[in-house]
Amino acid sequence: MQHDIKEQAIALAAIFQAAELVANLARKGTLDTNYAKPLLDSILVVNAKATEDIYGGQVNCQGNLALGRRIAKEVMGKNRDAVNPDTIRYALSMIHLESKLGKEPEMLSAIGQRLGQLERQLEHYDDVMHENVVAGISGMYQDTLSKLPFRIQVHGDSRFLQQPHIAHQVRAVLMAGIRAAMLWRQVGGKRWHLIFKRKALIKQLEGRF
């Protein structure tokens, strides 16, 4: 059970990190690549030996998800009011959208094919943060998840959201958030855990993964 909680804490940190990055992009037009890169890298990690390996391995996972760890602790702890409500909404929406994706085998297959294309693209550019790779991830999200009846509504400053490269970044980070939500489900995470297991999750988020 302790191992499960640890894995759930990692997935939860990744979800909230993606949510916070989307909120910052929408409001400020900025993206912290130190926190975005591990998330985008995770999209192509499909056969990890350990959950930590999805986000950089045991040594790097802690730092790579530092933003998400802080946000998740605040949401489940006594400092929830300090968190942007949009961040919380995006995180919960990612979990909900992923649950819908799980019932769409054809869409999952299409995503698998796009991941193959993305791997080849990454071999060429050798940087997941390259604008063309980010655009590729964005396109994968736009052609699949954005077609579902439930959509994540991103609210912010239209001056930023109307810029193509920022729109690509938003969708790419959302895709990474869905990947984290899939991990959350795979390691046994449930929405009610955010309430009834919050103390155990906070303990994991405060310690070392």
From TrEMBL:
The organism is Marinomonas fungiae
Q: List keywords of the entry alphabetically.
A: Cell membrane, Cytoplasm, Membrane
Where in the cell does this protein reside? Cytoplasm; Cell membrane
The domain of life for this entry's organism is: Bacteria
The family annotation for this protein states:
Belongs to the HflD family.
Gene name as annotated? hflD
Gene Ontology CC annotations of this record: cytoplasm; plasma membrane
- Give the matching InterPro entries: HflD, HflD-like_sf
The answer to whether UniProt assigns keyword Lyase to this entry is: no
Membrane topology designation: Peripheral membrane protein
Name the chain's protein.
High frequency lysogenization protein HflD homolog
